[in-house]
Design a protein that fits this description.
alpha/beta, 25 helices, about 675 residues, elongated, about 55% helix, 21 strands, single chain
């Protein structure tokens, strides 16, 4: 516990890329706004001869217009909506930014048992020194039989089989309970399968435990890869049963049980049987025996050697069908899935082949990882996806190796020893059913069903959330850019401000935020899991978004300022002209909101308001607010607005709809350019 705690203290958790990108974006935006405000202030004072008071208010209005006050709230709400959506799909988010990080994952390192597989263990084979027996039955049902070469066998005819079954029952901490839904395991599923094996051999676990009571034991730990128990009969004679990883148990054995008697261990025979069972995809457990005399205490030194191998048990854990599909989806999304298991390498390869993980022939063991540097592990990870006989400590080395190669890593784990790897990973995923509290505390995500498919669903949701954040940014920034541009245009032309600072604040906090919030509810796009992971170093404000912000801002400035000038030229009061300008800006936002639902796809061929009810609700709410802003006397006194006529509204709608048409035209041009870029390499090859 102390060693793991010390290791946890040394591991530095990573700051999510979204937080880093938002921080960098905030610094850049603050500097840009401050610079533009100062330049505008200086220009107005020195060139246009505005008074200090007027230019001070103008600079304040410019800053208020340009700063996206609602953006932090929109990002937080979008992430929170993602948390709710993931919780419905069995993924509990413990730290909010992890929602988005899941969407940028490039590698998922997953445990096998219970995550990729059903965790419904069934013993299907038993290998002794002379034979390999088949075992019938499904799951933990005690009904089943043993067979040899296709025919049923009686347990009494094979004393080695009976002894191995007894060892499987006694060297065990699990129990089976019969309920309405059949037999259920209480404890480790692998041990539950061994109890079921003993019951199929005609043994009663309660009777065996009373007949040969346990007096001491060595619990299973990943470091030594075995479990041992000390028993005494009623005459006081002691003996040890031991089970564990076959290669580890073979190191401790020098004899084998053959037809009721002991003889020297035939190592090549057992190595062949291990490979034979493992190639079938069976998890192999070795079982051994040792006499202990009158000793009442069991120490590690007592089992380091001199044991007699009783045999091997082959256990299957079928893959989850939904996990197989999820692995396929991840591969289509450009995400590599790496399987990490404590099983034999051949077993891992067989399961990996069924799951579509790896190349079907490459697997690296934890022992091989021990002698490698982080750089060597990074190179190895480029070609190997299956890791067998891996202890939890090795997971940390795998995480470091992947991160050294620039990958964004999601790591699963359930044990105390998994905590350092979970803490270091970009996204630590703990198991909610079999996971320890230490693992859950170190992780950002907890799966309530321990199912790999839930990770794939979470990645899908994470990508959707990032898309929606980008959509919100691409919507809010042009709005702020348009407001700021209107003020700059007024100062450059020497005219009165078309929008006052308090009206700018109304637009930013009441209407723009309301509309942008609707984008947080956008459903996943069809290709969300068909595109590769985004570049981790890509800024949140990409070159495309910068262009879109500038393009739409110019449309808003020209349209809104133009309507303001129209009103002034036709003898409209300053209050009426400003009210027209504010409403024009809002209607521009309404049309542009529909554009923003898809950044590059056309919105002309679909129902513009379909698929997201929040869009219609937000538009209706904003238009209601604008009616109050325009016609309610208290609002008129507060914001300096005035009632406008039907003709004004017609002009506002006609001019504002231009943004929808122009952005759709821009999307069409961009799609054509991207298609042409893809065609050029093919033409060059031809």
């Amino acid at each position: 516990i102390g060693r793991i705690n010390a290791l946890l203290a040394k591991v530095q958790p990573l700051t999510t890329r979204l937080l880093l990108q938002i921080a960098a974006f905030g610094r850049w935006l603050t500097a840009a706004i401050a610079g533009v405000a100062l330049l505008t202030f200086a220009f107005g004072m020195l060139v246009r001869d505005y008074s200090f008071g007027d230019m001070f208010l103008a600079a304040v209005g410019l800053a208020v217009a340009a700063i996206p006050e609602g953006l932090p709230a929109i990002i937080t709400i979008t992430l929170a909506i993602g948390v709710q959506a993931m919780a419905r799909r069995n993924a509990i988010i413990r730290r909010l930014p992890a929602v988005e990080t899941l969407g940028s994952v490039t590698v998922i390192c997953s445990d096998k048992t219970g995550t990729l597989t059903r965790n419904e263990m069934t013993a299907v084979s038993v290998a002794t020194a002379g034979h390999i027996f088949g075992v019938s039955g499904v799951g933990y049902d005690s009904h089943g039989s043993f067979s040899l070469e296709g025919g049923d066998v009686a347990i009494g005819e094979h004393p080695g089989l009976s002894e191995l079954s007894r060892a499987a029952v006694l060297c065990n901490d699990a129990s089976l309970v019969e309920g309405d839904g059949g037999w259920q395991v209480q404890g480790d599923p692998t041990e539950g399968a061994l109890v079921a094996l003993g019951m199929k051999a005609g043994l009663d676990p309660a009777f065996e435990g009373a007949e040969f009571p346990r007096t001491d034991g060595i619990p299973f730990e990943s470091e030594h890869r075995f479990m041992a128990t000390l028993h005494h009969d009623h005459a006081g004679n002691g003996f040890v049963y031991l089970k564990g990883a076959p290669e580890r148990v073979l190191e401790m054995c020098n004899r084998e049980r053959f037809e009721g008697a002991d003889r020297s261990l035939v190592l090549p025979y057992w190595q062949g049987r291990i490979e034979e069972l493992a190639i079938r995809g069976e998890r192999v457990i070795a079982v051994a025996f040792k006499a202990a005399g009158k000793e009442r205490e069991l120490r590690f030194a007592d089992v380091e050697g001199g044991l007699t191998l009783l045999g091997l048990v082959g256990i299957i854990d079928p893959p989850r069908p939904e996990a197989v599909e999820a692995v396929s989806q991840c591969r289509a999304a450009g995400i590599r899935v790496k399987m990490i298991t404590g099983d034999h390498a051949l077993t891992a390869q067989a399961i990996g082949a069924r799951m579509g993980i790896g190349d079907g022939g490459s697997a690296v063991t934890g022992q091989e990882l021990e002698s490698m540097t982080v750089e060597e592990i990074s190179r190895l990870l480029e070609r190997v996806d299956i890791f067998a006989r891996v202890s939890p400590e090795h997971k940390l080395r795998l995480v470091l190796g992947l991160q050294a190669a620039g990958e964004v890593v999601a790591m699963t784990g359930d044990g105390v020893n998994d905590a350092p790897a979970l803490k270091r990973a970009d996204v630590g995923v703990a198991m909610g059913i079999k996971g320890t509290e230490v693992a859950k505390e170190a992780a950002e995500v907890v799966l309530t069903d321990d199912n790999f498919a839930s990770i794939a669903h979470a990645v899908r949701q994470g990508r959707t959330i990032y898309d929606n954040i980008r959509k919100a940014i691409s919507f809010i920034l042009p709005t702020n850019g348009g407001e700021a541009g209107i003020i700059v245009a007024a100062i450059l032309s020497g005219r009165m401000l078309p929008i006052t600072p308090v009206q700018v604040l109304w637009v930013n906090m009441i209407t723009a935020v309301t509309l942008a919030l609707a984008l947080a509810f956008e459903p996943p796009e069809q290709d969300v899991m068909a595109r590769p992971p985004r570049d981790p170093d890509e800024p949140i404000l990409s070159s495309f978004l910068v262009w879109r912000v500038v393009f739409v801002s110019l449309i808003l400035v020209v349209g809104t300022f133009g309507l303001f000038l129209w009103e002034r030229l036709h003898q409209g009061s300053i209050e009426t002209s400003r009210t027209v300008a504010v409403n024009a800006l809002i209607v521009f936002e309404v049309f542009y909101l529909i554009n923003t639902r898809r950044l590059k796809e056309s919105m002309l061929h679909r129902q513009a308001l379909a698929g997201n009810r929040a869009i219609a609700v937000a538009i209706a709410t904003v238009l209601l607010f604008q009616m109050l802003f325009t016609y309610l006397p208290p609002m008129q006194r507060l914001f300096g607005s005035a009632a406008i006529g039907l003709g004004d509204w017609i002009r506002i709608v006609l001019v504002s709809s231009s943004v929808f048409l122009l952005v759709e035209l821009e999307k069409w041009v961009i799609r054509k350019m991207e298609v042409r870029k893809k065609e050029i390499p093919g033409r060059l090859l031809r």
